[in-house]
């Protein structure tokens, strides 16, 4: 059975994707920082499909490279890498945020994603036709909004990095896709507000946000397309989310 490696599998899209791939019989390499959640996942899924859990901070390039180097034989031939680990912080105007929060977003969403990709490229190329890298970007990478500052910019990086990877991977059979979700109800807003459950509940109340399973389904769909099809970018929003008009500062 094919192997999928999913970063940020302890919550949200990554966790839902783990269940989706497991339902189809894929072997799984599941990573995240919260080992107790990884253990719970292993207990839940590990009796159905082979599961390897790795407690890993994607920002730690050395640890990422070592973990990939030391993959047990049965998990070495990876067919799909889902670069999902990421976060937004500081939902305030740029002029009011802590610099540390900007650095955390850059270190996780850009440096972390690059760390994992670099470590995994040789493995994916060895797998060849049918392999894919699925990067989780965001609508924030294309559409500006107040408070999006560095988060949106990191996701714009994910989009362009995905396209550029495609150029270099020409002829290897490895596909690259940027999946860009809109508003989805996960722990994302809880993390963004540093634990403000009321703010998180308020954002998702009275509307119909995407659920983690909706994006997991898209991830699985992209990963299981015929070898000759590469979706470059997939932007997915809730039907009830659209854009605002330009705003104008007036006297
Ligand atoms: N929800 C949305 O509205 C939305 C929309 C567009 C894009 N996205 C993107 O979708 C991805 C998944 O987010 P989500 O909505 O599923 O949020 P989530 O429920 O908060 O899940 C985020 C996952 O990323 C992991 N993670 C964060 N920092 C990490 C680090 N330094 N090292 C390793 N893992 C790390 C977390 O695991 P640990 O804490 O255990 O490490 C967690 O499993 C992110 O890239 C996010 O930017 C989300």
UniProtKB/TrEMBL annotation:
Enzymatic class: oxidoreductase
Keyword Transferase tagged: no
Keywords: Oxidoreductase
Pathway linked to the protein: Organosulfur degradation
UniProt EC number: 1.1.1.313
Residues annotated as transmembrane: none
Chain segments annotated as coiled-coil in the UniProt record: none
Keyword Oxidoreductase (UniProt): yes
An example Gene Ontology molecular-function term: oxidoreductase activity, acting on the CH-OH group of donors, NAD or NADP as acceptor
SUPFAM superfamilies, sorted: NAD(P)-binding Rossmann-fold domains (SSF51735)
Substrates-to-products reaction catalysed: 2-hydroxyethane-1-sulfonate + NADP(+) = sulfoacetaldehyde + NADPH + H(+)
InterPro entries linked to this entry: NAD(P)-bd_dom_sf, Sc_DH/Rdtase_CS, SDR_fam
Similarity remark: Belongs to the short-chain dehydrogenases/reductases (SDR) family.
Subunit field text: Homodimer and heterotetramer.
PANTHER family (alphabetical): ALCOHOL DEHYDROGENASE
The protein, known as: sulfoacetaldehyde reductase (NADPH)
């Amino acid at each position: 059975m094919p192997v999928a490696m999913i970063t940020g599998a302890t919550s949200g899209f990554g966790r839902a994707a783990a269940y989706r791939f497991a339902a189809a019989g894929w072997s799984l390499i599941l990573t995240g920082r919260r080992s107790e959640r990884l253990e719970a996942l292993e207990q839940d899924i590990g009796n159905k499909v082979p599961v390897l859990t790795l407690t890993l901070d994607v920002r730690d390039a050395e640890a990422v490279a070592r973990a990939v180097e030391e993959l047990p034989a049965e998990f070495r031939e990876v067919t799909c890498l889902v670069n999902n680990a990421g976060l937004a912080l500081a939902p305030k105007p740029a002029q009011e945020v802590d610099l540390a929060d900007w650095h955390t977003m850059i270190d996780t969403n850009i440096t972390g994603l690059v760390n994992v990709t670099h470590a995994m490229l040789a493995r994916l190329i060895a797998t060849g036709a049918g392999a894919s890298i699925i990067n989780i970007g965001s609508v924030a990478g294309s559409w500006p909004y107040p408070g999006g500052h560095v988060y949106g910019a990191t996701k714009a990086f994910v989009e362009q990095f995905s396209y550029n990877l495609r150029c270099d991977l020409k002829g290897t059979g490895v596909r690259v896709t940027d999946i860009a979700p809109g508003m989805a109800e996960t722990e994302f807003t809880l993390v963004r507000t540093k634990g403000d459950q009321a703010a998180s509940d308020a954002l998702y109340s009275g509307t119909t946000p995407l659920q983690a399973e909706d994006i997991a389904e898209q991830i699985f769909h992209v990963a299981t397309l015929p070898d000759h099809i590469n979706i470059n970018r997939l932007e997915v929003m809730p039907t009830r989310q659209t854009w605002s008009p330009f705003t104008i500062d007036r006297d």
